[in-house]
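Dig into my protein:

:::
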Amino acid sequence: MALGDSYTIGTGLTDESRNFPSLLAKKLGEESGIKVALVNLGVNGYTTADLIREELPVAQGLRPELVTILIGANDLVQGSDESTYRSRLGTVYDALGLMGLPARRVLALSIPDFSGLPGAAPFGPARELRSRIDAFNGMAQSEAASRGFRYVDITAISRAAGDTNGWVAGDGLHPGPAQHRAIADQLWSLLDPVIKER
């Protein structure tokens, strides 16, 4: 199960099967022989408040064996303060903790760094955006660690030069297929040992 916003659903991609949750689910099925049913609840533009209101009720009706969560970019650009973000993220993480799956099967992803991309210009100066992204990610990391979730830093991937062909989506703001592939590969490298314990 994947929770989140535009990064999770794959906004900017011409084919949503190339978003990181779909790529990860495919890899999981191929490598483990497990029949994987992906439920991607990500919605473009969602904040933590939207996720709590709309995605969590659906998620709580499922029995996921693995969860990825990537949320916060829209909180940031809509001017949420750090304490509000931390509180709402804590609410989300607490709800996930009550779902009964082992904590190591919750992958909490950092917010990618979109600050230097052309599409980010309306949201403020790049330096300020980058500073806020780092602050929000620091909170997400500490909240995840306190619950035993796996925190996955994909911000470093987003800051890499990457393959210019397909690294950034055509909208100039979201990851392109090559970057989604890199994210999925990083998640798999962490997940592979956990699946082998299954």
Q: What stands out?
A: The beta strands are 2-4, 67-70, 106-109, 150-152.
